[in-house]
Amino acid sequence: MRVVLAFNEPALAVGELSARELNERHRKLAIGLARFGGHLDGLFFCPHVIDANCGCRIPGPGLYREIIRRFALEPADVLFLSASEEDCAGARAFSAPLLRIDPTAEERYDARSATGVCQSFMSAVDCILARADE
Ligand SMILES: [Zn+2]
């Protein structure tokens, strides 16, 4: 199983965050994950401002397409996990399995289609790992 993180980072575009600072954050994230035996296979981000009209800003399809292309995947091979309904709408464009995190919603998960709503990130991880063990 590969794990990637995709996100928007408009602070780069407006100079509130430098590439060096972003790299340092990612380095710390990698160190923190490694403490628990985890890792990321990739970081994908849009460095543009909201109204830049770029193709890579989430929930647009650009980053999703890039992830699928980079790892030579089919959309059905990718499980999207997000707490943002807007971001989920972008993922739905690919008809890919989708887990949405919503602490206010009733938890439901269909292991066969790998879609559903989980109340917490940890619950979503449990669903993903249970599916991976099948
Ligand atoms: Zn962008």
Report on the structure:
The protein contains four helices and six strands. The protein is α/β, with parallel strands linked by helices. The chain has two domains: 1-73, HAD superfamily/HAD-like (Rossmann fold), CATH 3.40.50; 75-134, no CATH class. Strands 3-4-6-5 form a four-stranded mixed beta sheet, sandwiched between helices. The relative contact order is 0.12. The mean pLDDT is 89. The protein binds zinc ion. The site of zinc ion has 6 residues, from loops.
Quick tags:
Rossmann fold, alpha/beta, 2 domains, binds zinc ion, 134 residues, 4 helices
Number of helices: 4
Strand order of the largest sheet: 3-4-6-5
Spell the H/E element sequence: EHEHEHEEEH
What ligand species are in this complex? zinc ion
What's the number of domains? 2
- Please state the overall shape, judged from the principal axes of the Cα atoms: globular
CATH architecture of the largest domain: 3-Layer(aba) Sandwich
CATH class of the largest domain: Alpha Beta
> Which structural class best describes the helix and strand composition?
alpha/beta
pLDDT below 50 for ≥5 consecutive residues: which ranges? none
The count of β-strands is: 6
β-sheet strand percentage? 15-25%
The major beta sheet can be summarized as: 4 strands, mixed
Percent helix range: 25-40%
CATH topology of the largest domain: Rossmann fold
Overall mean pLDDT? 89
Gyration radius, in Å: 15 Å
Distance between the termini: 13 Å
CATH H level, superfamily name of the largest domain: HAD superfamily/HAD-like
